[in-house]
Amino acid sequence: MLALPPRRQEATRRLPIAAAMSADELPPANITGPLAALQPLRLETVTAGSPDYAVFRRYLALHHYLGFRGPVGENVSYLARDCQGRALACILFGAAAWKTKPRDSWIGWDDATRARRLPLLANNSRFLILPWVRVPHLASHLLGRITRRLAADWQARYGHPVWLAETFVERQRFQGTCYRAANWTCVGQTQGRTRQDRVHNISAPVKDIYLYALTPRFREELKSVDA
Predict the structure, then answer these.
(1) What is the CATH number for 125?
(2) Is 117 a member of any domain?
(3) Are 44 and 142 in contact (CB under 8 A)?
(4) Is the dihedral of CA 44, 49, 52, 53 positive or negative?
(5) Percent of the chain at pLDDT exceeding 70
(6) DSSP states of 4-18 as a string?
């Protein structure tokens, strides 16, 4: 074992470097009123290199409390617009967390099965309703629409589906209301540590763990012995 010298500088949170918004992407007047007035909504997948993906990235970098530097691994990104073409929300699903006891117990996973079947989960790592949008029930409506198509969108992009969606809601910031309204299930809480923690002394916000089954047979699919 190597004894490392003391850290020269305290670690700092890496903040995203957001590009300036173009004139047509500046915040518009507040979007308010009933959800029905915005229908039909357009929920589009956006891919790297497209103009809409550049908008998606900048909105997350500027307005999401975690910032955004880009996804890692398999992912599907959605940009929601109203009937007038105005952007309303950015939603990102990416790779699932490697290990979390409440989720794994709820599924019925052992370590070997989790390692083999983890790509069949998707993590909702970013969900941003733009700050000037104040529309009741919009968030849960979007979650409902996405969960009905997520498995097919993943299949079209990566050649395999996903059977379960997860997300982590920071308890000190949010109540998880839209997830509960969209019938996601809270299965427990994180332990307040990060994946970089090897000696149990790195504290992180405790988060509620929400799951949503994308098929009634999700346990059979996730515990299958097939590769």
Answers:
(1) 3.40.630.30
(2) yes
(3) no
(4) positive
(5) 84
(6) PPPPSS--------P
pLDDT at 201: 53
pTM equals 0.83
Q: What are the E-state strand segments in the chain? A: 31-32, 42-46, 76-81, 87-95, 121-129, 133-134, 164-170, 185-189, 207-213
Left, alpha or beta for 16 (phi > 0: left; psi -120 to 50: alpha)? beta
Which structural domain range is residue 102 located in?
40-222
Question: Residue 125 is which amino acid?
Answer: S
16 found inside a domain: no
Assigned domain for 18 exists:
no
Q: Where residue 5 falls among pLDDT bands split at 50, 70, 90?
A: confident
- The total of structural domains in the chain comes to 1
Neighbour tally for 97: CB within 10 Å: 17
> What are 60-64's contacts with CB under 8 Å, separation 24+?
60/90, 60/92, 60/126, 60/128, 61/16, 61/17, 61/18, 61/19, 62/18, 62/21, 63/128, 63/130, 63/131, 64/90, 64/126, 64/128
- Determine if the peptide bond prior to 40 is cis (ω within 30°): yes
Residue 120: predicted pLDDT: 97
